């Protein structure tokens, strides 16, 4: 069964009584790259975590097109600071496959294939914990993509990366998107948002302030806050 569309209605996530995000109404269609932007603390991370099901849903509904258990299997999440096992790059890549019951040799082959794909082919035996920030992020993305998720959430995956590493990560993401992986990603970098987005979700004060196709949002944002944010002004 297909996973998308995702239908979100009046969804709220709270922590100790305080609203982190919501109420949110949103429909994610099966195709495209949704980029989530907004000032610090506007709820980007919380929104992604709530959609993925790792932040508590206190009110409202989040419905995938298939049963929840199946939906969980078909999505992955890349954190801003990924945690690596103190094992080799190859082992870090093979691990999610082994967990899913893939035979050892096949997992190893796939791990090598993916290491190659993200430019880590020469680092197979290197301990993942000593990788540079950019290498680590590429490994985290490969580790998420290796099980071929239908949807991949990414929370600021390029926050600490320089231009070259960012370009490499964007290439990996573009390839995944072209291959049919649905991306939902937050970023602070407006250049990156413009390069990747087909749809933009603009967050403000825990709510979706504006949601529009990328071209519409960047050319003619409909709220003064989005206008100001795109201009680089401080928006509160
Ligand atoms: N674990 C937590 N406990 C308490 N408050 C939290 C927690 N996580 C987030 N918040 C609060 O929820 C609000 C939304 O935070 P969130 O991290 O989702 O925003 P963000 O847009 O991702 O911010 P940034 O751009 O700074 O990463 C903020 O006011 C934040 O302080």
From TrEMBL:
<dbReference type="Pfam" id="PF00005">
    <property type="entry name" value="ABC_tran"/>
</dbReference>
<dbReference type="InterPro" id="IPR003439">
    <property type="entry name" value="ABC_transporter-like_ATP-bd"/>
</dbReference>
<feature type="domain" description="ABC transporter">
    <location>
        <begin position="6"/>
        <end position="230"/>
    </location>
</feature>
<protein>
    <submittedName>
        <fullName>Glutamine transport ATP-binding protein GlnQ</fullName>
    </submittedName>
</protein>
<dbReference type="GO" id="GO:0005524">
    <property type="term" value="F:ATP binding"/>
</dbReference>
<keyword id="KW-0067">ATP-binding</keyword>
<keyword id="KW-0547">Nucleotide-binding</keyword>
<dbReference type="InterPro" id="IPR050334">
    <property type="entry name" value="Molybdenum_import_ModC"/>
</dbReference>
<dbReference type="InterPro" id="IPR017871">
    <property type="entry name" value="ABC_transporter-like_CS"/>
</dbReference>
<dbReference type="GO" id="GO:0016887">
    <property type="term" value="F:ATP hydrolysis activity"/>
</dbReference>
<dbReference type="InterPro" id="IPR027417">
    <property type="entry name" value="P-loop_NTPase"/>
</dbReference>
<dbReference type="InterPro" id="IPR003593">
    <property type="entry name" value="AAA+_ATPase"/>
</dbReference>
């Amino acid at each position: 069964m297909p996973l998308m569309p995702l239908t979100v209605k009046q969804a709220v996530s709270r922590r100790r009584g305080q609203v982190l995000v919501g109420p949110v109404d949103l429909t994610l269609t099966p195709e495209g790259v949704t980029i989530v932007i907004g000032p610090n603390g506007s709820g980007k991370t919380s929104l992604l975590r709530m959609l993925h099901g790792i932040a508590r849903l206190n009110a409202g509904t989040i419905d995938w097109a298939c049963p929840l258990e199946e939906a969980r299997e078909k999505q992955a999440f890349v954190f801003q600071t990924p945690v690596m096992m103190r094992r080799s790059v190859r082992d870090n890549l093979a691990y999610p496959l082994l967990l899913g019951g893939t035979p050892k040799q096949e997992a190893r082959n796939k791990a090598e294939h993916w290491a190659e794909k993200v430019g880590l082919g020469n680092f197979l035996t290197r301990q993942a914990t000593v990788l540079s920030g950019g290498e680590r992020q590429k490994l985290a993305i490969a580790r998420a993509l290796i099980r071929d998720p239908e949807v991949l959430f990414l929370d600021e995956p390029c926050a600490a990366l320089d231009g070259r590493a960012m370009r490499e990560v964007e290439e990996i993401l573009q390839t995944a998107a072209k291959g049919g992986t649905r991306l939902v990603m937050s970023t602070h970098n407006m250049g990156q948002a413009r390069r990747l987005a087909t749809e933009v979700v603009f967050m403000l004060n825990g709510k979706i302030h504006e949601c529009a196709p990328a071209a519409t949002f960047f050319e003619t944002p409909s709220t003064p806050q989005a206008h100001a944010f795109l201009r680089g002004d401080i928006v509160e």
